[in-house]
Amino acid sequence: MNDFLIIGGGVIGMLTACQLAEAGHGVTLVERGYCGQEASWAGGGIVSPLYPWRYSEPVSQLARSAGERYAEMAAMLLDATGIDIEYRQKGLLYLRVDDAERAFAWAQRQGWPLEKVEASFIYAKEPWLCEGIDEGLWMPTLGSVRNPRLCRALRARLEALPNVLLMEQAAVQRLIVERGRACGVETGQGRIEAGRVILCGGAWSGVLLAEHDVALPVRPVKGQMMLFATPPMTGGRQLLERVVLSDGRYLIPRGDGRVLVGSTLEQTDFDKSTTAEARESLWHSAVAMLPALADCEVEQHWAGLRPGAPDGIPFIGEVPGIAGLFVNAGHYRNGLVLAPAATRLLVDLLLGREPAIDPAPYRPARLGAADRTGA
């Protein structure tokens, strides 16, 4: 029996497993499909909330801490696995922001670089953006990762750790709770036991808890995205070289010149199908920002399910009423953004270390009695 059993093989689950294993503990990670193939793969890879000034302080605090860790994590994974996760800090251009005063007030409080820029600055950075842009906001330190590569790197790291048992295609059928304590799970591959159980199931996290009268308010929110193949441009440039955000939609460049556009926000339960309506909407949003994309091939169109939680604040900590059961879920649009800090916080709690971030705002115990009973 291992020390820890982790349910869910997304970035949150895999990072948690890495940290616990590197601290010397035996870890079993159970994934119903293949690691890194759900929301962690489907996202865009921006490692900041899209409009960070619109989030509460608990989310901002995790985002700040995570941002400080990404460069180090990228270097560690490259050294350990040989996989470059394409961590890039080329900044973000905001177009048509209607609450700029709020943004600047937030930036001043946080000590975060943000400035107003004119058209000449914007077109010097991105010469093929649409015409008629007069001004925007510039966040020079924003970074992004190529999240499918991050998933592959984390999985490769886990495979190399001798104290990790990675079980894929092992759907969890139920949690095993005996005398008020979680001690394992039943899967299609049999019973698996561990000293403590950690639920990192993303949008599916609440399903397992519901059987034990815990109504975790984490719901699936579908997001559809598309990927364009772009041609080489003059002067050795790419068609787009940094993240651009306008009217809630964003363009993200990849190292090979591809451009990703996202995303929709849809309440469709656990439906991950793509739609013609979303495809058309995303295409028009992309072309409105970067007109040359009208002549580029759409290589892929996909959907993923974000784990939405009230106010976007994730649940991190021990589940009330069930000893030995912990959760790290509900990161909504910011799973990749918050992952290094959210997982470090939970691992600190699990190992009895002093956490760098106050865990109180994220504790599942903030659930009220009505949430506990499902009433």
UniProtKB/TrEMBL annotation:
Keywords, comma-separated and alphabetical: Oxidoreductase, Thiamine biosynthesis
Entries under InterPro entries matching the protein: FAD-dep_OxRdtase, FAD/NAD-bd_sf, Gly_oxidase_ThiO
A Pfam family that the UniProt record links to this protein: DAO
GO cellular component, one term: cytoplasm
Glycoprotein among keywords: no
Pathway: Cofactor biosynthesis; thiamine diphosphate biosynthesis
Record-level Gene Ontology MF annotations: flavin adenine dinucleotide binding; glycine oxidase activity
Any GO BP annotation: thiamine biosynthetic process
Superkingdom, natural source: Bacteria
The protein's Enzyme Commission number: 1.4.3.19
Enzyme class: oxidoreductase
Ranges of residues in domain FAD dependent oxidoreductase: 3-349
The protein's name: Glycine oxidase ThiO
Organism, scientific name: Billgrantia tianxiuensis
